[in-house]
Structures are given as structure tokens and as C-alpha cells.
Design a protein that fits this description.
It contains 9 helices and 8 strands. With about 230 residues, the chain is of the alpha/beta class. The protein folds into 2 domains: about 1-125, Response regulator (Rossmann fold), CATH 3.40.50.2300; about 150-225, Orthogonal Bundle (Arc Repressor Mutant, subunit A), CATH 1.10.10. The strands form 2 sheets. It has a 5-stranded parallel sheet, with helices on both faces. A 3-stranded antiparallel sheet has the order 6-8-7. It is elongated, with a radius of gyration of 19 Å.
């Protein structure tokens, strides 16, 4: 689970975002903070993986907080969530190492898309072995959600490498594959395989196929779109 701390001076907004985070599979909200001081205390107590950080805080602006976390060597990623739309603030967030910048107001699906994109990037970063410049370039690729559209020419090449391996396994199988089979074929854990398969289904790169046995619940398996 990716542990998230929501930092927003507005109690209602913080609670709303916390609830939205909890609705995204693979995430849990470990706390809410309404000032920079509360955020530092909550980080020390809960050790989140990701901050949803507002810029406008009563005791210190969020960009300053982000920069101080970087200077202190805190191992936490940050998505800025703010109504600030000026280039200076956006550039400061980028210099501070924010993985993305969401402009308020935004809906649940926009936040969920970005959280799923971050989750995919994080899984790939944790599983990748650096063998050369290509691997480094892939890790520095944008971590934002791609525009919502169907796959176009060459889109398969833009998938993260491990996700591409999962897709290749499904395409090569010529039959429905489940997460356990994929995990054994390419050497990743079953939960990781299931997350990638779910993401590929969301991208319309594979189709969910339910296999029913004589007893018990149906098994989720996946086939390429052309197999329908």
C-alpha cells in the first residue's frame, strides 16, 4: 500500500481528498495536516510515501515546505495540489522535485488518474535494474497521467518496461492468462502482476475474461483486444 498524507489548510478539502485517496486501490490515507508544522509532525509519526501538498498554508507556504523536506533528505514524493496557477510557483514546485502539480478544483477521476500513474511509475522504479542509459531515461520519463485516449500507433512502446513484459506475455500466450501465470512467466509477484493487468485493462490494452470452474468464484484472466 502507498501511504499518503494530505496537507491542506481547509479541513473540509483535506477530508474530501483523504476520502478520495482511500477509494483508489493500492492507497491508504495515513493522516491529514492543516499547517506545515502539523505536516512535519505527521510525517515523523506516520512515514508517508506520498504527500498531497497544498501551497497555501497558514504558517509556511507549501513550496517552502517541499524545499525544506528535500534539504533534510526526506524520502517522500510530493504531488502539489493548489489553486496557484502562476508559472513561478509551478517552476518552484518542479525545482523542488514535485512529481506532479494538480490545479484546484479537480474531480475525483483526475486525482485517481494521477495516483494510478504514480503507482505505475513507483512499481517500475522499484523493480527496475539499471543497466544503461535507456533504463535511466525511462525512470526520468514524466510521471503524470497520460491523456485519456485509446492506444495509437506505437503506443505499446510507451508503456513502462515491466508493464510491457506483462502485455507481451498475454499477447504471446494465445489463451487467457491470470495474474499467477503472468507472475511465473516474467518473474514478478502475483499482486504486482495483478496491478499491471488491471492497469492494462484500464488502458484498453487487454480484455478481462472471466473463467468459471465447477465451484467457487470466477477467475480473472486476460486476453488481447483482438481475441474478443
Amino acid at each position: 500500500m502507498i501511504r499518503v498524507l494530505v496537507v491542506d489548510d481547509d479541513y473540509r478539502v483535506a477530508r474530501l481528498h483523504a476520502g478520495q485517496v482511500a477509494r483508489v486501490p493500492g492507497y491508504e490515507c495515513v493522516g491529514e495536516a492543516h499547517t506545515a508544522a502539523e505536516a512535519r509532525a505527521a510525517m515523523a509519526a506516520n512515514r508517508p510515501d506520498l504527500l498531497l501538498l497544498d501551497v497555501y498554508l497558514p504558517d509556511e507556504d507549501g513550496i517552502s515546505l517541499l524545499q525544506s523536506l528535500r534539504e533534510a533528505g526526506e524520502d517522500v514524493d510530493v504531488i502539489i495540489i493548489t489553486a496557484a496557477r502562476d508559472v513561478k510557483t509551478v517552476r518552484a514546485a518542479m525545482r523542488g522535485g514535485a512529481v506532479y502539480y494538480l490545479v484546484k478544483p479537480f474531480g475525483f477521476e483526475q486525482l485517481a488518474e494521477q495516483l494510478r500513474a504514480y503507482q505505475t511509475w513507483r512499481m517500475d522504479a522499484e523493480s527496475r535494474r539499471i543497466t544503461g542509459q535507456t533504463d535511466v531515461d525511462a525512470l526520468f520519463a514524466p510521471r503524470r497521467a497520460a491523456p485519456s485516449s485509446g492506444p495509437g500507433p506505437g503506443s505499446a512502446r510507451r508503456l513502462p518496461p515491466t508493464m510491457q513484459k506483462v502485455l507481451d506475455a498475454v499477447v504471446a500466450a494465445k489463451r487467457p492468462l491470470g495474474a499467477q501465470e503472468v507472475s511465473e512467466l516474467i518473474g514478478i509477484s502475483r499482486p504486482t502482476a495483478q496491478r499491471y493487468l488491471s492497469e492494462l485493462e484500464r488502458k484498453n490494452r487487454v480484455i478481462l475474461h472471466l473463467e468459471y470452474g465447477t465451484t467457487g468464484r470466477p477467475v480473472n484472466t486476460y486476453v488481447p483486444p483482438e481475441s474478443r
